[in-house]
Amino acid sequence: MGHRDGYGFLRVEGRKDDLYLSSEQMKTCIHGDQVLAQPLGADRKGRREARIVRVLVPKTSQIVGRYFTEAGVGFVVPDDSRLSFDILIPPDQIMGARMGFVVVVELTQRPTRRTKAVGKIVEVLGDNMGTGHGG
């Protein structure tokens, strides 16, 4: 379970308590992924911590968010605050979206510790006024 501040919690099957994931660990997974994790000790605040070994079942790759451009670079900010990363959109993948439009993005490259997520816009839902579906 991701948090907008970057850290997250790992829900363990058959257990009540969740394991804490640092923002560094969350860079390797997305909210909703099923992962293989290694429990570590407790952190400074007494939370049981874990390290992501690998993603076993990636979450569906379509994400809704708003399209923005900054210094000529297009990116989407996910609406889901549990996804604490932006998604870079190559210029040939924007499907006519304009600044502030709500779009559906398909991830073409998942985020890692060293690289940002990259995606392509597969649907433009509407303008920044939130008028719903449109062209």
Automatic annotation (TrEMBL):
It holds the Pfam family CSD2. GO terms for cellular component: cytosol. Transmembrane segments: none annotated. Its EC number is 3.1.13.1. GO terms for molecular function: exoribonuclease II activity; nucleic acid binding. The keyword Nuclease applies. It comes from the Bacteria. It is an enzyme of class 3 (hydrolase). Keywords: Exonuclease, Hydrolase, Nuclease. SUPFAM superfamilies: Nucleic acid-binding proteins. Residues 2-56 form the Cold-shock domain. This is Exoribonuclease R. It comes from Escherichia coli. The lineage of its organism: Bacteria, Pseudomonadati, Pseudomonadota, Gammaproteobacteria, Enterobacterales.
